[in-house]
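$ run holo --ligand "LQESDW3C" --emit tokens
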Amino acid sequence: MKKDRGLLIVLSGPSGVGKGTVCAALRNHDTDIQYSVSATTRNPREGEVDGVNYFFKPKEEFEAMIKNNRLLEWAKYVDNYYGTPRDYVEETLAQGKDVILEIEVQGALQVRESFSEGVFIFLMPPSLKELRSRLQGRGTETKDLIDSRMTVAKEEIEMMNKYDYVVENDEVELAVERIKSIVTAEHCKKERLIEKYKELAEVE
Ligand SMILES: Nc1ncnc2c1ncn2[C@@H]1O[C@H](COP(=O)(O)OP(=O)(O)OP(=O)(O)O)[C@@H](O)[C@H]1O
Ligand SMILES: Nc1nc2c(ncn2[C@@H]2O[C@H](COP(=O)(O)O)[C@@H](O)[C@H]2O)c(=O)[nH]1
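-- output --
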């Protein structure tokens, strides 16, 4: 029997809302979701590992990836490039496995053009004050960079109506449960199942 394609899940939300934290918690649940590793030109943070957190690339190499169509989407975000390697996503979906992309809004809108059947989730902070406090608490950016990220955050929040679902990340485990429920519901959508059960509907 032909294997169904996996579901493409796009998780966006302002920097510091907790996308990485929620995805890390989701990995502790038995979901079989695969995680795409992005490429970026930004410098690694303390503890980040090349090939695990990101593929860290020099600008020229990233631009070559764009030119050679090796990215499913890419965007410039606060002075650095970020992008999703195409092959991993396409191969994993073709194997019937779900893939999650943790990306900002410009990239998500590009993905929407080629994967309209994907599920697009926007993670929301309880408030802007809490968002700033999470960014400050993470301690990975200077005050100026936090200000730049907060400016982009407000623009991104204005785009939440472009998404299929909005999930508040008030508590990590609650956000994880909400995302798991969305994924389960998407798997039960009739558009995904009509083809699979077509034969059962035929009269004997
Ligand atoms: N529900 C939550 N309550 C309190 N703190 C949280 C919550 N979720 C995440 N955090 C904290 O907020 C900070 C930012 O989280 P995280 O790095 O996961 O955000 P992000 O959205 O992935 O950011 P970026 O887009 O910059 O990669 C971290 O210090 C994390 O521990
Ligand atoms: N369009 C894309 N955005 C991405 C990708 N990988 C990460 N991101 C987003 O960039 C910002 C900043 O990330 P940080 O690690 O420097 O804090 C954040 O919103 C990420 O979600 C990608 O492949 N494409």
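-- notes --
The chain has two domains: 1-33+98-204, 37-96.
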